[in-house]
């Protein structure tokens, strides 16, 4: 996948580093109950594929992959059949999942730095209303200036830094009711 031509759509200049993907996969635990995952900014499945591999054999998995790039959506539909692919805005995720759904994991790699702060706060609050108790929101990003905004809206988040080019940051928020 060529990243630079789609920079202002996807926000990515390179594929996600493996150490970041391993950390994300390590944060996800599959239980005997139904597990619901919403991945926003799924791209061509760099994070999706290892998560589906970890979930192999799990019958009660609901996996929604949101991606704005139609070409990436076509790739996901062709190669990864165990998920629902939505070509649309992550900011409207609730229009594409069952109304009573409670989410175990939101995984976001969308370029939140491209959006106004006035949009990000309400988006994070909306995500929190869909999370199950002890559900997790995992966000990866490269814009360090977003950290204060995340800390404001996601109390008790755990921050991680990955030295790479560009540097990657990750926050993990565990929802408490």
TrEMBL record:
Q: Name one GO biological process term.
A: methylation
Keyword Methyltransferase part of the UniProt annotation = yes
Q: Which GO terms describe its molecular function?
A: L-histidine N(alpha)-methyltransferase activity
Q: Which residues form the Methyltransferase domain?
A: 37-135
Provide the alphabetized UniProt keywords. Methyltransferase, Transferase
Superkingdom of source? Bacteria
Q: Might you give the EC number(s) for this enzyme? A: 2.1.1.44
Mind telling me what this protein is named?
A: L-histidine N(Alpha)-methyltransferase
């Amino acid at each position: 996948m060529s990243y630079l031509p789609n920079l202002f759509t996807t926000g990515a200049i390179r594929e996600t580093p493996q150490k970041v993907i391993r950390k994300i996969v390590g944060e996800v635990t599959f239980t005997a109950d139904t597990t619901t995952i919403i991945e926003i900014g799924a791209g061509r499945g760099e994070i999706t594929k290892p998560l589906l591999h970890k979930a192999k054999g799990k019958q009660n998995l609901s996996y929604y992959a949101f991606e704005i790039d139609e070409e990436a959506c076509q790739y996901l539909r062709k190669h990864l059949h165990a998920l629902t692919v939505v070509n649309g805005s992550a900011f409207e995720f609730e229009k594409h999942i069952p109304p009573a759904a409670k989410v175990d994991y939101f995984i976001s790699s969308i370029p939140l730095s491209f959006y106004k702060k006035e949009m990000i706060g309400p988006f994070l609050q909306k995500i929190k209303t869909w999370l199950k108790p002890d559900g997790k929101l995992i966000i990866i990003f490269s814009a360090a200036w977003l950290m204060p905004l995340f800390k404001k809206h996601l109390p008790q988040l755990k921050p991680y830094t990955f030295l790479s080019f560009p540097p990657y940051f990750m926050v993990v928020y565990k929802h408490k009711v």
